[in-house]
């Protein structure tokens, strides 16, 4: 359970996301003025957050290759069917959750009615005891 609260975790290494030149550099810009060759002024610490377009370029190239392929229609149909399957699974899960919610509501109402019945039963017992006591008092007079 300690993993749930963030205990016993090793520090994460985010160095894979930092470009080579930005690792360990000065963030306030203090340092050798000759270190920033070829960079725009004011870049500094934000260099690590530049957009890497290589993944987007690979995806565009794959899309072009797929368009040229003889199996493009089949690949598209397969992808569409996979997406429909995922949607149906998620719809089923949502319906199961809704059913569980309705069952929980019905169970809550059942428990509430049971408690009400018990309360009415106890109230009638108290009324009966009270009337017996009143009868006993009336007979003693």
From TrEMBL:
<dbReference type="GO" id="GO:0008270">
    <property type="term" value="F:zinc ion binding"/>
</dbReference>
<protein>
    <submittedName>
        <fullName>ATPase family AAA domain-containing protein 3A</fullName>
    </submittedName>
</protein>
<dbReference type="GO" id="GO:0007005">
    <property type="term" value="P:mitochondrion organization"/>
</dbReference>
<keyword id="KW-0547">Nucleotide-binding</keyword>
<feature type="region of interest" description="Disordered">
    <location>
        <begin position="105"/>
        <end position="141"/>
    </location>
</feature>
<keyword id="KW-0472">Membrane</keyword>
<keyword id="KW-0496">Mitochondrion</keyword>
<dbReference type="GO" id="GO:0031966">
    <property type="term" value="C:mitochondrial membrane"/>
</dbReference>
<keyword id="KW-0067">ATP-binding</keyword>
<dbReference type="Pfam" id="PF12037">
    <property type="entry name" value="ATAD3_N"/>
</dbReference>
<feature type="compositionally biased region" description="Basic and acidic residues">
    <location>
        <begin position="105"/>
        <end position="128"/>
    </location>
</feature>
<feature type="domain" description="ATPase family AAA">
    <location>
        <begin position="34"/>
        <end position="141"/>
    </location>
</feature>
<keyword id="KW-0999">Mitochondrion inner membrane</keyword>
<feature type="compositionally biased region" description="Gly residues">
    <location>
        <begin position="22"/>
        <end position="32"/>
    </location>
</feature>
<keyword id="KW-0175">Coiled coil</keyword>
<dbReference type="InterPro" id="IPR021911">
    <property type="entry name" value="ATAD3_N"/>
</dbReference>
<dbReference type="GO" id="GO:0005524">
    <property type="term" value="F:ATP binding"/>
</dbReference>
<feature type="region of interest" description="Disordered">
    <location>
        <begin position="1"/>
        <end position="48"/>
    </location>
</feature>
């Amino acid at each position: 359970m300690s993993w749930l609260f963030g205990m016993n975790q090793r520090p994460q290494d985010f160095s894979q996301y930092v470009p080579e030149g930005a690792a360990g550099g000065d963030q306030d810009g203090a340092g050798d003025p000759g270190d920033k060759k070829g960079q725009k002024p004011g870049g500094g610490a934000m260099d690590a957050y530049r957009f890497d377009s290589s993944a987007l370029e690979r995806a565009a190239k794959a899309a072009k290759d797929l368009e040229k392929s003889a199996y493009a229609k089949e690949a598209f149909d397969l992808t569409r069917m996979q997406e429909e399957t995922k949607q149906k699974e998620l719809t089923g899960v949502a319906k199961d959750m809704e059913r569980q919610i309705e069952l929980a509501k019905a169970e809550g109402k059942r428990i509430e009615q049971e408690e009400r019945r018990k309360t009415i039963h106890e109230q009638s017992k108290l009324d009966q005891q009270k009337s017996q006591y009143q009868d006993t008092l009336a007979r003693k007079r």
